[in-house]
Structures
1.
Amino acid sequence: MTPAARVAAAIEVLDEILAGAPAEKALTGWARRSRFAGSGDRAAIRDHVFDAIRCRRSFAALGGAETGRGLMIGAMRAADTDPAALFTGEGHAPAPLSAADGQGAPPEGRFAALDCPDWLGPELEASLAPDFEPVMQALRLRAPVTLRVNARKADVEEVRRALTDEGIEAKPHPLASMALTLGAGARRIGNSPLYHEGLVEIQDAASQAVVEALPLRDGQRVLDLCAGGGGKTLAMAARAELDLHAFDIAPRRMKDLPARADRASVRVTLHDHDSLDRAGTFDLVLVDAPCSGSGSWRRTPQAKWDLTPERLDELTAMQDTVLSEATARTAQGGVLAYATCSLLSRENDARVAALRASEPGLDLQFERRWTPRDGGDGFYLAVMDRN
Ligand SMILES: C[S@@+](CC[C@H](N)C(=O)[O-])C[C@H]1O[C@@H](n2cnc3c(N)ncnc32)[C@H](O)[C@@H]1O
């Protein structure tokens, strides 16, 4: 496909997303209908689409309309490229610009220029203080692909060399000891034997840093109470000889965890409600809570625009519920760890303060925050001792 045909395809996909389709579904649907497209085309179209969703507000202003076409015109203007170069109408290119496209103008106001929803801007700014603008700018850019080397099976240097032999550039990431950030060739990682044999997992560097900060020791009985796909479960398993248990309120989210654990050569006991109730208390309980995901908006940019004040209220209520469940499952003398990939104080330290006000006997050992400026997703971690 020509560069212009890729832009035309991105416009088609973006229109579906703006009409309410989830981004992944719209991209997969387009790929199924377009067998002529190669993997390079699909990757380029995906990049156009995700870049445009991340910068939806500013690109729509620059492009003169919040449509697929307007966003792609805006994207080109944001990159100081004349859209007329690709909007030619020739072959499969988008139609030439006309009066109907409007003029476009720079986004009005600070929050619009930062691609931040107006209603959330003040709260994000209060939470991030002087980091607000640089963090919002960072959220407008693509996130790197980062691997976690499975310490049970390999070391970082050995994996880096093997990746180089496969033509995939990789370099250590400063946030976590087992993290490798991929450069050229990153898209090939899904086909790499290193991945299929469980030597590496794809995991954000700050997500790895959260697990590295946990006070894990051999022999502990540990519960990952919000296990989801098990990213942090497996990272914990690689750190120490644990008696490791996993639960998620939506059990289907854990469906790949047994196969992933096998591949990584670790053991995890999966629970349903009944077995968890019979399992007693744990030396360490990790709550990787459902949240706004504001720290990972680079990867899931649609979530930035879909979040509403009502949904944020629901999420904080869920965080309080899961934290009080987790406290009850933490042994006396044990550790309760609370993590989110949110940048909002309301979902982070404010939830910990509310919990400690209602549950006496929880001492705060430490809190840490990461933002995309550190090179990974935004994360928050609080580690508490239960006395
Ligand atoms: C941020 S995700 C977890 C991601 C996962 N830990 C990882 O590293 O891949 C939050 C998870 O919490 C689950 N969840 C929400 N409320 C819960 C509850 N009350 N108890 C247990 N899990 C819950 C959701 O289904 C979701 O899978």
2.
Amino acid sequence: MSREQQAVARARKAFETGRSRPLEYRIIQLKNLQRLFIEREKDISDAIKKDLNKSEVGTQLFETLGLEGEINLAIRKLKEWAAPRPVEKNLLTLSDTVYIQPEPLGLVLIIGAWNYPWAVTIQPLIGAIAAGNAAVVKPSEVCVHTAKVMEDLLPLYIDKELYPVVTGGVAETQELLRQRFDYIFYTGNGTVGKVIMEAAAKHLTPVTLELGGKSPCYIDKNCDISIACRRITWGKYTNCGQTCIAPDYILCDPSIQDRVIEEVKKSIKDFYTENPKTCPDYGRIINQRHFKRIMALVGDSTVAAGGDGDESDCFIAPTVLRDVKPDAKVMQEEIFGPILPILPVSGLDEAIKFINKGEKPLALYVFSADEKVISRMRDETSSGGFLANDCLVHFSVSSLPFGGVGNSGMGCYHGKFSFDQLSHLRGCLIKKLKMEGVNNMRYPPHTPKKLGWARFFFLTTFDLGWAGRMLLLALMAVVAAFVLQVRETQDSDRLRSRVKNSYLISVDQTQQPGCRNSSVVIKIKVLHMHFIYLH
Ligand SMILES: NC(=O)c1ccc[n+]([C@@H]2O[C@H](COP(=O)([O-])OP(=O)(O)OC[C@H]3O[C@@H](n4cnc5c(N)ncnc54)[C@H](O)[C@@H]3O)[C@@H](O)[C@H]2O)c1
Ligand SMILES: CCCCCCCCCC=O
């Protein structure tokens, strides 16, 4: 058995013991994970410093703070999330217990990416633990030092059989993908996303794909350009542009382009000093392959700021490109580096048209003081997430689903969305072995009269206001009367009924003109009734 097979087999066996299921056990694991972030803060930030030159404070701000928040939330809400969720019933199931029971899926494979190696690998793990699953964790090999720390530390804090860490690159990941999982949660680029989905299809395993793409950023003339550019500069150059939701490029009116460039340059200086290379808050490109790829994107455009780099140090200066053409190299792929192209457009209409010509992005940003501009941008485009007048921060809101649409991914997570995504939401209906008469309408022999009743029971909906509750009471009386009536017909020799004032219920099924469905009209003529059982 390969190392990967062994880890999968052990995790599966551990899941089958049932120990990941009790809420108390899940909470213990989550608390242990929380302890890891408190006690091993230094190990974590030292490794990330080596991988991406993130500062200690930057690591906490962008990686572990969010994880601690997600763990706290899961611990606080777990009982509520895992509880049966009552749902609305139809008339037919009025006396039944109908609810959704979240249950663990089983064994989850989590494949992480390198750019925020803790955030994007551990955040799904929090969801997997909270939902009662086992999980094999595969950190990105590209983040060499962090992968090692994760492999060393996780088993010291959480159940190492239920949640094993498997390190390695393409070969190891593909070996994992040959195994059977109950869910695969992948974060990374779309090309590999297709490989993941193909492998998952072999076992009919459902997937979440957290991918990327080119996230547009439109700056309206009607806005505070200085503030807009400060926020965009932060969103773009954080982690040296290696952020899945970084604003990829700016669209703006040509008349504000110079001002935008000046303000971005000013913010770069404010954030990263005159010399970003020596600034502890300015990151590095992950490796020389990506360094070369990013530098090659600049070639055919005009540099307005930065543009220089040092391959030996994987440093690329915060760069702005002006008057960029849609067919420029930098516009052909997700940049994932500190290059900010500006494409002049004639206004909102052209911006929307341009965005809609591309793939659906992971995030879409608009800066404007005009609510109509913001609404039009939201309503006339599609993207994983939508932000007006800021960048990135939606990632930190646990009550928002985070994920892509179309080419930027499928599925979503964070907070309760992680719990739901990694649970099976099992529909449950618990009926009593009583009131068999009600079921006659669905049993053979099928007759138009029974169908009439079935239409009524299946299609009647109620809006439970005050009037709705009154109606519900009346309907319950109808159901009770119907049950008794059916029973009476069935057992007429045993049961004789005497109904005062002649007539109980009649059902009129009439086809309404201009309406495809027939409507059921109930007439209750007499509510006063007596049933006498004769033995
Ligand atoms: N949506 C999100 O939350 C999110 C977060 C981070 C990054 N991203 C996106 O991820 C991309 C950057 O990450 P990346 O793809 O360079 O990360 P990566 O190179 O770390 O790859 C991601 C994972 O896929 C595995 N992998 C790589 N090639 C493989 C193959 N051929 N077969 C099987 N597994 C393979 C790696 O081992 C790794 O664990 C960007 O597009 C970015 O936008 C998205
Ligand atoms: C305070 C804002 C936090 C933003 C963190 C962004 C993480 C993005 C993960 C994808 O690359």
3.
Amino acid sequence: MLTVRGISRSFGDHKVLDEVSFDVRPGRMTGFLGANGSGKTTTMRIVLGVLAAHGGTVSWKGTEVGPDNRPDFGYMPEERGLYPKMKVRDQITWLARLHGVDRETARRNTDELLEDLELTGRAGDRLEELSLGNQQRVQIAAALVHEPDVLILDEPFSGLDPLAVETVLDVLRKRAAAGVPVLFSSHQLAIVERLCDDVVIISKGRIAANGSREELRAKHAGDRYEIVVEQDAGWVRDVPGVTILELDGPRAVFEAAPQQVLRAALDRGEVRSFTPVVPTLDEIFKEVI
Ligand SMILES: Nc1ncnc2c1ncn2[C@@H]1O[C@H](COP(=O)(O)OP(=O)(O)OP(=O)(O)O)[C@@H](O)[C@H]1O
């Protein structure tokens, strides 16, 4: 497990990170969410050791990370930094070799990744000849080719079309399933909602929410319900203690007094459905930041 504890960092007088703590668990995809400038990239750079913290620790498998025991990170930076003139396959293989991977493994890993990322047909093209979305896939291959212990990806899904998102997702899930902790930032909440096991939300340099997707949903669920009956549901507003949030013919969304509403509904006729309303990640995000 990768453990971040009490990380702080300032730039001049500006405190950008204030006691940031969270875990990235092996075998799980952890989404790192926050508004622009909330401190995601700064946190990732400190985790990677390319930027110093002014307080706090990063630990890997229970031991504080230092120059001697840094795990092998696969990093996809926000500023994509590959060579535009170099051919795709040569570039990925070369990056693997830079990480100390032997020639044969480097070639094999490169070809497997290009296949998984549906780039085999572009392997001999220069990077600059590819569309931006395909260049993005090459960046992902570059982060993964040396079989890193931990994956840290800054906005890996930005600029990808929905099919490309699925392709990249499959590749990342495969790594997570093999036991690699995967931390990635994203502004695309719908994607995070669908694919993340764990979610960390940062706001103005502080952790605003943190936990498994289900834990967060349950924690922020409140006392909200949806009922669908046969006839008009307007009577729900007369049930004592109830606050109506939405009313649309036979459907009502309301807060509080669920048992009273259900009883009153059954007295009147058939109940088509009655469910607690679980908040979306989008709603949780807006609530906590
Ligand atoms: N090298 C630096 N010098 C001064 N300020 C910096 C530096 N790096 C980051 N900052 C400031 O730290 C804050 C957090 O920036 P950071 O890049 O970590 O945010 P982010 O959450 O990754 O944002 P985005 O979603 O826009 O990528 C911002 O106010 C930024 O201006």
4.
Amino acid sequence: MERHALSLTGLTRRFGENTAVDAVTLTIDPGQFVGVIGRSGAGKSTLLRLINRLIDPSAGEIVFGDRTVNDLRGKALRDWRRHCAMIFQQFNLVDRLDVLTNVLVGRLAHHGFATSMAMQFSDEERTMAIEALDRLDMAPKALQRAGTLSGGQQQRVAIARALVQNPRIMLADEPIASLDPGNATKVMDALRRINREDGLTVLTNLHTLDTARSYCDRVIAMRDGRVMFDGPASGLTDRVVRDIYGSAGLEEFSESVTSTSIQPQAETISA
Ligand SMILES: Nc1ncnc2c1ncn2[C@@H]1O[C@H](COP(=O)(O)OP(=O)(O)OP(=O)(O)O)[C@@H](O)[C@H]1O
């Protein structure tokens, strides 16, 4: 796998008068597990969407290895999006399709028009999809309709779908915001395992401080589009958080959602 640093320089995105991401400059080394935190509207989602070019920057540069991502067009841009797998708060699975087919959807970007329209996949791709599901303890559900799974199970299927893209970077936009604590822990544990086993860079927006502290090597705190803190999770003391967010912000981010000590809970829907 290509292992390159991702560098953002002066990255800016304006929506009319509003500057959602304001001159962000940072470098993410390969294999880092990075959490982006900040209050609602701080620019976290916009930052992720800029990186995978779902939206275009108003100014600044995104560089991955020797590739200037903000200049990419056409096939090169499609390849980049394939290299940056993204998972979302709402999972975005096709409810009526089975789990295995949902994972195989992650392979479509590797296909030409005809085979992708026909949803034709090779045996090798099916094996790859089953292996990805197995890593997330979801292989037994491969033939079940995605819509019948719990939220935590759906998110793990979404991670498997992202993995079969063979990504260089995994972007996760509030991946646990809709999940109960037990499922949130399983999803974060899965991301951490992939990060450690594959050396895959993970960049995830989180809305709880304790999750960032438990899982991230590095935390980036944003406010009004700017980076207010960038450092190891251990540097995020209550004092730093209060300085960045004010005391109201501290309460907002201190609530507990995941904890490495939480025992896995029963899934809300079982097969
Ligand atoms: N497509 C858009 N059009 C106009 N304004 C937008 C658009 N997307 C984001 N914004 C604005 O940019 C700012 C940053 O939004 P963003 O969604 O990146 O914040 P966030 O930190 O991810 O918030 P949340 O935690 O609520 O998702 C907000 O003021 C938002 O209203």
